[in-house]
Amino acid sequence: MNMSHVKNKWPMHVFFISQGITLFGVGYVILPVLLLLFWLVRTAIKTPDIFKDLFTDNRCYWVWIYYLLFIVMVCISDLMVGGRLTHVEGPLYNLALGIYMLLGYLVAKSYDSDEVFEHAHRWLALWLFLLLAIAEIYYHEIYRYHHGVFAHPHVFFSGLVMVALVNVVFIIERFEYKKILSWFSCILALWALFSVYKYSISDIVPHLYIAGAVLVLLLSGRKHSMSILFFLMLGTAVFIILNSHILTKLQNIDLTSQSFWMGLLNHREYVWTVTLRIFGQHPLLGVGSRNFSSLCREILAEMGLTSPEVFSHSHNIFFQNVVAHGFIAGFAYLGIFLSLFRLVVRSLKTVSREIMTWAVFSILFVYVFHGLVDVAPYNEEIIPFIWGSVGLLMGMVVKEAKMDE
Predict the structure, then answer these.
(1) Residues 222-240: pLDDT tens digits?
(2) Which residue from 83, 223, 294, 319 has the fewest beta carbons nearer than 10 Å?
(3) Would residue 291 count as lying in a domain?
């Protein structure tokens, strides 16, 4: 059912507000979420058919099948083994994934696509500007803001790179020479590049920003994207040639050294060893939410290993879900992402504008690759941005598929 005629725009603005304000603290999103839930329930009662296409469209329903299996196993696991229901790995926050997918879908289905893109771009630019500005204030020690993503550097830079890459997508797909917003977004993209390389302590996140931007430029159907990529590649080559610091580092690399490869692991060999052992000990329901740390210490002690760090998680998103909730939940979670990549690929045949396609692709790119070595993308402050964007793509796909019939 097409609801593009809806005149009341407050749900769309509240949705984009909730996506960004959560980055600065989960508590700030309570009122926006309550308003959006009221809108969601009211819409479901008045026009229940609006959700029918979401669960019958072949591109979307596999995401929901895996998600429903995952959430059921999470609930069973925490109830049976004594997990903490309000932990980030528990049912409460995992239910938020589905709620934000529904909200994003409803926003995309209810309003004109061009209008959604315009408002999304404006709010995105505002949130990215605030993230970068507060980061400068934080790292220059003018004021230490310790809420939201700023409480954990790995979470902050993971979220920042996701938001910045979506900003790059909007630049590529919606750039107009006469629009101030387009030029402002370009400045923000360069500022984000500067920030992640100057301040990030991660060994992978800064490079994901560059790699993600290159992939979006390469895959985009816009004529100017390959021209931009050409000059970026040429400029990078010249920069490396003229940078003596990089050349010196290259001359000192020794790939035959065991310490080089162990340095890349950064002590993760300890936690991954423990994780694999827990797989064998608790295959069905896992150890429950928030119970990993204590069990990790016990197993390390049994093995006679002394780790230089205390691990609260498995340093891998997919491992963490198997550890916490068992193999069924872990493979269901993996299935969600396989289905999402399928949705991204198949959406190209349906959508007339590829903005949300590449936006979700760039988010998934960071989520998966950073998630292989850290659980930072799993943090609750980033849930609305990630899963709300997924919902927007679902809404765009379903809406345009119905219009083509």
Answers:
(1) 888 999 899 989 998 998 9
(2) 223
(3) no
